[in-house]
Structures are given as structure tokens and as C-alpha cells.
Amino acid sequence: MSASCNSIKPVQSNGNLNYLGQEKTQWRDNTNYQFTEEEKNDVTMLFGGLSLLQDKLISSALQSIGENYIAMPNPDFESFQKGKAFGNRGQCNPTYFNVGNLVKYLQNLRDEKGLSTEEIIKKYIFVTSGGCGPCRFGMYITEYRKALSDAGFRGFRIMSFEHNKGIFQAADETSAINFSPKFFITLVKALIIGDIINILTYKIRPYEVQKGATDKAIETCREIISNTFMEKKNLVAAMWRCRQVLEKIELNRLQPKAKVMVMGEFWAAMTEGDGNYNLHRFLEEEGAECIPQPLINRLMLSIWETEFELGKRENLEKEGNKKVDFSTLKTKLLIKAGKAALKTHFTLYAKAIGLHDYEIPNIDKLATLAKEYYPLDASGGEGHLEVAHLIESVKDNLAHLVISVKPFGCMPSSAVSDGIQSLVTNRFPSANFLSIETSGEGAANFYSRVQMALFKAKQSAKEEFEALEMPQKIPDRVHNYLFQPKGEKAGTAAQLIHSIKTRNL
User: Fold this and answer.
1) Model-level pTM greater than 0.85?
2) Where residue 26 falls among pLDDT bands split at 50, 70, 90?
């Protein structure tokens, strides 16, 4: 997809009037607007849509290489309402929240900050990922433009890059937007560090003795990493400094809490706000520990899908007795290098901050688990990951409850959660699985369903913990997050007790 921008051009209608008494017009996307080097220093590039921490880290990381990126505020219910008001009907939750969030932000610049519409269109650009697939994701950018036009910001520029084409993609030659390898490498570093800190946050916060201590420490860590990016210093050393901050949080980790894996549609499962009714915080308040789905899982899936397609192409070439395609060999080498770089950076940063027990998912292994239930040729959404994670959670006893959260009517996720997973849970009757939709409304029903599934999970966690004999002496290190044993138990408290007895600590 070109990074050039599309304008919205009115086309005269047959004279009918709309509900405001204005003449009806039709609009079309055109590639008329450009982003030039001459104006780059005066333009602010807006982005958002990931976790709160990652958005802030990305902003600092990209500013460190001379790019003026500013993270958008977290989408809230007002954003959803504006998305519904200015967007097309039948869109999914992420569209309404994120489109409405951009409209709300621009309206605030106009109405609260006093900027004219012309100034906003001239001095601001929104950058997002684009792509195609069997869902409404391929229409997101069009929805942004349509909503902005109806909200009074006709001609506001939306820039995009392909989410599944890796680091070697460039903007239009006439555009000043920087989609260079340096841009994507810096971006990925911020994403990885954000993933690692988020994973630790969800491991630590449920067991904090002083409420709010974890959030305060994480904010300190964010400042450390942001300053390190801006000062172009060593990120591994910065992660070690974060480790020293997190170690000071007082914990009580011998509380039997239900461990809940949250997965599903990418944005709905990852966002930390009204877009999923603050699901992670709600689960923690109800006495659970969350297992989030980090963004690196999605990056590894994209790499796997590319490899899978290359494998199919090679098989066709062999069957047709064609010569070796050297471009395919080059792509395979780049993929291997990319995977190695991701894993190396993740490991370095994770070890430095003290995340020892997390392994980057083996997508081949997950594909093997899922292929009996999910056709691997089918792409879109989270692919086979959702099915595989549920099976893996049962076989390896990873969680007491698995929740698949998705937007209302999300086609890839709904087909999996409401269709294929029913077969999986039939084959694995011990699975405690909840598929639940978010629509921006209906929070009471959402929370009620989560609480019912969580009740069973909490009972399982309690029984698992009470079945173990409590050792006479509990070493202090058990309450430090750096002590991260693996074991056959799902709950953190049960794992700790089991490890004390088996290791004679």
C-alpha cells in the first residue's frame, strides 16, 4: 500500500437533501495529498492503538531518530460514541474506538486549543498500519477518512504502512514519511521492551502489598527507557536499572489466584481501557492474575505466515520442475535473520530486567497443535494461534481460564471462538473457556459472564493450592518476582509451594 494520502472528493448527487437539509454528495478516495520534506519539520505525526506503555515508548523511540511522533490518548467511551456518530454502520469495535479517538483529538485541537481546521490539516498527520484480509481491517483507513470528512476535517492526511511486509518497505518517493529499516528496527525495539515490561506488570501487580506500588514503579521504568532512547544510550543497561526499581516492590505471592489467559482479536485483547471494559484490571480486582498476549506473538505469526507461503510456493516449483528462485532464497535468509534478531533482542532485554520464565512462542509447535482443528492455509486475524493457545493451556496446565475477547461480529475471531473452539472444548472437557464479545456497550452483561467463568477458575486455583502441603519454612526469595519457577501447577502460589518442596529450598 502506498504511503501517500487520499483526499475525499465530493461528487454531485441528483439533488436530494440529507437529514440536515443539505444536498447529498458522494465521496471517493483519491491520492491527491502529499507530505513533503519542506513541511516535515512543522508537522506532528499522530499514532496509537497499542498498550499504554508501548505507545509512550514508541513516541520516545521515534523522536530519538528525529521523527516527530506523538502518541494519542487512550480511546475511551466518548471516542466510541464519536466513532459511531461519524463512522459507517456495521464497523467493529476497534474501528469505532480508534477512529472516534482521532476525531475527538482533532476536535479538541480545534475547540479547546484554538487551532483552525486549516492549521490542523496542515500541521498534523495520522500514521497507522494497513493491510488486507478477511475482515474489516482492510477498510480501516477508508473509515478514518470518511469519518474525518464528516467531522469537518476533509483532507486530513492518513499515512499507512503494510503491517505484514517487514522492515524493508518504503514510502512513496515523493513523500517525506520515513518507513526505512532504521524506523522499523527502532519501532520493534520499543515494542519488545514494552512487551517485556507489560508481562512483568501482570505478574507482579496482583500480588503487591501496597496498592499502586507496581504502577508507580512501572512509570519510573517508562521514564528510564524513554530517556535512554532519547539520549541514545544502552537499552540493556536501562532494563537493568528497571530491574532494581521493580525489586523494591513488596509482594505477597502465596495468595491462590486464578490465572487467566486473555487472547482473541489483537486490539480487543490488548487494549487497556474502555475498548474491552478494562478487562485486565477487572480480572485483577476480582482476584485473578492475567496472562496477556504480547505483540511479539503477532510478529512471530506474521513471520511464520510468510514462511508458510514460501514453502507452498517452493513445493509448486518442485512439482513443475522449475529452477530455484533466488529471490525466494533471499527472502528465506532475511526471515531467518529477522527471527534471530527478534529472539536475541527479546532475550537480552528480558534477562536484564529479570524476566526468566517467558519463552517466545514456537509458532511451528502451535501450528501442529491447531492443524487438526484449524486450516493453516486460512489467514486473517490471529490465524491458528487462538486455537493453539487453548489446547496448549489445557495440555501444559498454563491457566485456570482462557478468555477470547473480540469485537462484536469480528469475522476471523468469531469463526474461531464460536465455531472451532466448540470442537476443541468438546475434545478437551477440562478446558475452562469463555468467548465474549465487546461492543462498546453492554458492560453489565460482559462483566457478569466473566464473573461466572472466573468463579470456576478461582475454585480450581484454590483446590490446586490447598492440595499441596505447606512447607514449615518459606524462604524470603519466594516473594521476589525474580524467583520464577516453572512447574506442573497453573497458579503462581501453587507453583511456588511446589518448587520449594521439590527443590528443598
Assistant:
1) yes
2) low
Helices 140-150 and 93-111, axial angle in degrees (round to 10)? 40
Q: Is residue 446 within 8 Å of 102, Cβ to Cβ?
A: no
Closest CA to 401 of 437, 466, 450, 448: 450
DSSP secondary structure of 482-500: T-----S-SSHHHHHHHHH
* Cα→Cα distances 110→85, 96, 114, 126, 149, Å: 18, 21, 5, 16, 15
- What's the confidence (pLDDT) of residue 176? 74
Beta bridge partners of 263: 404
Which residue type occupies 436? Answer: I
Q: Strands 5-17 and 23-33, how do they pair?
A: antiparallel
Cα gap 405→268, rounded to integer Å: 6
DSSP state letters, 127-140: EEEE---SSGGGGH
CB 3 within 8 A of CB 179: yes
- The CA distance from 266 to 95, in Å, is 12
The Cβ of residue 18 has, within 10 Å, a number of other Cβ atoms equal to 10
Q: Are 453 and 461 within 8 A, CB to CB?
A: no
At residue 27, the pLDDT reads 60
Closest CA to 136 of 265, 273, 45: 265
Contact (Cβ atoms closer than 8 angstroms) between residue 221 and residue 243: no
The region, left, alpha or beta by phi > 0 then psi within -120 to 50, assigned to residue 114 is left
Tell me the pairing of strands 258-264 and 288-291.
parallel
Span 207-265, pLDDT tens digits: 999 999 999 999 999 999 999 999 999 999 999 999 999 999 999 999 999 999 999 88
In residues, how long is the chain?
A: 505
Cell matching residue 500: 520449594
Asked whether the beta carbons of 45 and 215 are under 8 A apart, the reply is no
Query: What's the grid cell of residue 213?
Result: 506500588
- Helix (H) / strand (E) containing 124: strand 124-130
Q: C-alpha grid cell for residue 137? A: 481491517
Q: Which three cell numbers stand for residue 34?
A: 502529499
Chain segment 156-201, per-residue pLDDT in tens: 998 876 655 555 555 555 567 878 889 999 999 999 999 999 999 9
Q: What is the pLDDT of residue 135?
A: 60
Give the list of residues 6+ apart from residue 486 with CB closer than 8 angstroms, or none.
357, 495
**Distance, CA of 313 to chain centre:** 30
CB burial readout 483-505, b (16+ within 10 A) else e: bbbeeebbbbbbbbbbbbeeeee
pLDDT digits (tens, 9 = 90+) for 421-455: 989 999 999 999 999 988 867 889 999 999 999 99
Instruction: List, in sequence order, every residue forming a beta bridge with 12; answer none if it has no partner.
Output: 25
> Grid coordinates in use for 258?
486464578
The pLDDT, as a whole number, for residue 487 is 75
The residue type of 307 is E
Angle at 38 between CA 36 and CA 39, to 5 degrees: 75
Cα distance between residue 70 and residue 74, in whole Å: 12
